[in-house]
Amino acid sequence: MCGIIGYIGNDEKKSILINGLRELEYRGYDSAGICVLENGELRNFKAVGKLVNLERKCEDFFFNGFGLGIGHTRWATHGKPTEVNAHPHFGHFSNVVHNGIIENYQSIKERLQTQGRTFLSQTDTEVIVHLFESHLETSTSVLEAFSQTIAELKGAYAILLITQKSPNTIYYAKNGSPLIIGKGEDKLGKEAIYFASSDAPLIGLANEVCYLEDGAVGACEVGGFHMLPKIKPLSGDKLSAQKDGFTFFMEKEIYEQHKVLLETMMGRVSEDSFSLEELNGLDFSEVESITLCACGTSYHAAIAGSYLLERIAKLKTKVEIASEFRYREPILRQKELFVVISQSGETADTLEALKLAKKAGLKTLGICNVDNSSIVRQSDFGLLTRAGIEKGVASTKAFATQVMVLWILANFIAQKCGILGKSEIQQQTKTMLEAVRTTKVDKKAHEHIKRLSRRYLHGHGFFFIGRDIFYPLALEGALKLKEISYLHAEGYPSGEMKHGPIALADSRLFCVALMPQNLLYDKIKSNVEELSARDATLCALSAEYYEGCDDWIKIPHTSHYMVEFFSMMVVLQIFALEVAVRLGNDVDMPRNLAKSVTVE
Ligand code: M6R
């Protein structure tokens, strides 16, 4: 959600900024802009829509000399996605880009307007640059004026500001939204400084980085990087972030699940034991219950995890949607382990829920895909999911690895508390490996789903149904489909059909039924029969043919429901992908969505 980029050095500014923004495209945006300070003059370019529009706007502009620039992809919050509302926003001699929300912008704006300052946009961001220029009239230095400006802002932000009054420096502030400063070398072999809202644009350019903490306000110029706190090396492979010959990142990410799941297990699962070194110091005899808290797909992984934790580790587990949890004055008990789950580690609602639990004195654990993200940094304990960079806005491999981590965690606790004997542990680890193998996409099976998808484009909606741990998988199947196909889809526990939803059943209702052989098969079969009797169009996912279905997607035979869970997960992801492709949608960057939701 919104992306920020900044650069100081000798390389060509426009391409550095636009390439950087391209690496942030996966976060979602609806307009973009850059500003370069070239020989004392500010050059500002903006465009609505994709980056290619911005490139057209500045195709004749190049700047190779020493200088600096900032860029931004905007996901509209205050004001429509128009060119005027796109960042950077400018005053008389400064430009600013911002991620997040300035909550008190209205009162600041009114005050500045009475002082005669004119606003062009409807955004909250524009107040920053005018407030800064107003402070500069009375301040003794640019940094002082910038700090006074930041001190007045309420809300979440990552901010970069450049000004003609200080042509070698980028001013930055961070509170609640991610911001990283990196150091590398430009083509002349001289120090270059980079700013970005995630690692992705920095890989291959910066070799050292500083992940700014909330409250950071400062100025950075060439030669000043080493004064930043907690500098770390940045490693990473640009190739892994590319599409590897697939048309969409989402497809590539579905196909790499069997590899990343092994990464997730590495060093944590051996033939006859589970080990989670990251949890050393966490005393499970002190844990009476677990709360799992997350949003979206991560929330679905949390529900799946709750079945595993109760069934395997025998620990009472509840699941919370982070955005609800924050405001409902929840009762928190000291012996409750509070676990937040997030792909990005920057989701504002999840992060705030984590802070609330910490404030109440609970032990916290972050399950996350991004090392050094806010959630990892702020949790007492952290478990990385190791899915690698996920670029498709619709989460796939991150979900798979979240479920895997929760499954490992359930087994680890059960082992620690003496609930599982050696042979049961061996059985679990064997099942895990079988589950991983089943996520390797079979090209023929993919083709079959692709062909079948053409029959699922024109109904009046979809039900995805499942029982037990297949219920959160049904929720996830429905979310995947609606995110990228824009078709209406809902996930339900199949036993709920008769309590209302079945009223929608007719031949134009598509029903995707998750029918595992190893968990409550007869129960779900009865629910599916009820739908079939009402003429719903049924697509069954199961190992055995079910005679009441219209379409059958065959799942490999196995003796464990978790293997069926992971096979069906892949089928649902491919099904959503193929329906969306047929509808001509941008699978990797679906409308209205952002990869990292850093605002409330
Ligand atoms: O980064 P997080 O896992 O915290 O993100 C939570 C949700 O915003 C995210 O899962 C969202 O639902 C995705 N678009 C799912 O595909």
Please give a structural write-up:
The protein is α/β, with parallel strands linked by helices and 600 residues long. The protein has three domains: 3-242, 4-Layer Sandwich (Glutamine Phosphoribosylpyrophosphate, subunit 1, domain 1), CATH 3.60.20; 245-439, Glucose-6-phosphate isomerase like protein, domain 1 (Rossmann fold, 3-Layer(aba) Sandwich); 441-595, Glucose-6-phosphate isomerase like protein, domain 1 (Rossmann fold, 3-Layer(aba) Sandwich). It contains 17 helices and 25 strands. It has an eight-stranded antiparallel beta sheet. It has a five-stranded antiparallel beta sheet with strand order 5-6-7-8-12. Strand 5 (89-90) and strand 6 form a beta hairpin. Helix 4 packs across helix 5 (142-152), helix 8 packs antiparallel against helix 15 (470-485) and helix 13 (422-438) runs parallel beside helix 17 (561-582). It binds 5-amino-5-deoxy-1-O-phosphono-D-mannitol (M6R). 5-amino-5-deoxy-1-O-phosphono-D-mannitol (M6R) is lined by residues 295-298, 342-344, 347, 350, 393-395, 483, 593, 596-597.
